[in-house]
Amino acid sequence: MDFSFLSDPRYDVLGAFWVTVQLTVWSAIGAFILGVVLAAMRVCPVPLMRGFAGGVVNIVRNIPLTLIIIMMSQVIANQLGLRLATRQPGVNPQAFLDTQNFRLAVLGFIIYTSTFVCEAIRSGINTVPPGQAEAARAVGLTFTQVLGIVVLPQAIRAVVAPLGSVLIALIKNTTVASAIGVSEAALLMNTLLENEADKFTAVFLVIAAGFIVLALPTGLVFGSLAKKASVKR
Amino acid sequence: MTVAGPSDGARPPMISMHDVQKHFGTLHVLKNIRLDVPGGQVVIVIGPSGSGKSTLCRTINRLESIDSGDIAIDGVPLPAEGKGLAQLRADVGMVFQSFNLFAHKTILQNVTLGPIKVRKMSKKDADELADSLLQRVGIAEQRDKLPAQLSGGQQQRVAIARALAMKPKVMLFDEPTSALDPEMVNEVLDVMVSLAREGMTMVVVTHEMGFARKAGDRVLFMADGEIVEDGTPQEFFTNPTSNRAKDFLSKILTH
Q: Smaller CB count within 10 Å for chain A: N or C?
């Protein structure tokens, strides 16, 4: 098999996977934070907040990710004019477009993935015995404190393994960013397939192996983390 | 021992409940409850299961909401929700049947959480307070363990220490020994007896008749959501007036 493209300076395989890693890390951090907020809203006593969060989750997670990413670019950025990077006049707009599209993709991944994080955490909240929240209220903690100090920490510890699955899905989902021209691994694969059509198998093997190298340890780490974090009752 | 009434001088009763009603669906679980508990009194609540005694106890700090009526702690009416309610709850200690220690926190953290987050005490002061309370309930050596590593009796004593750390005006006990193995019941009751002797205002839902006689100032017998008898332990155990109470006592005392 011909792997010569790996040493071709036109194709930066490691660089492309580095973009994949960056997409994943920023999206994961944002999705975790937004997911926790959504989960908190879904269990809060204010009906309006509960309804809003429930609506967001049920709408967003039932739209295909490809649509969300393309919508970020076509609707949110082009139609509504959201700028996530500064464009310098007189300079080649490619750098601006790269940053803008990267950030739009991250925002799209955060919105999409946070709904799955929210639902995982909500199922974790159901594993926390009601007595824990009652005891916290009886001590005099406010609703936010009960949730933030007693319920959510236990709920999140209970769903470390499912959150690992969400993260693995996110790593692979970042390939959708190629739809709006973010130069991550899948976009490089498309370029390679066009330019080096005779090396299809080799290209496929390299890109697939790259994703396995990223995703497999993630699963293992979250598996052992889940054991350590679990709350003994 | 005498039962102090509501007209106990100028000081308002520590707990006062007036015309409290509560339903669970169609079930009328609290019927027209009127109760005044003066400061320092130890009230034992007894009754068959489903009589509303746990619900009564839980309404006092509003872990159960009520349909109508008034509840006041030390003269302050209980707010329905929000920060005011949280502050009032901080003054009312509660001990549960199933301990409910925070499972992800150490014993020490369980006791210091309230003082630090609610009373805004410094960590150092809270640690000192917690250590002295843990000493008092006899589990100072366990301070760095997690709740699951302790026996039921030990966990319940931590729960009492956690409630005491808030320096409460009132302590509520909702069947504190019902989930314990028999050999651990006394270690918890001993702590409660010493609390009672120090003059803590206590409402104790329990089936421990020995404790009721030893530490109680007053016994409430509940059935079907009503307070059927209200008297001293002596009166209640030797000379119950209602048939319900006679029937109940004959069932639990004839073994």
A: N
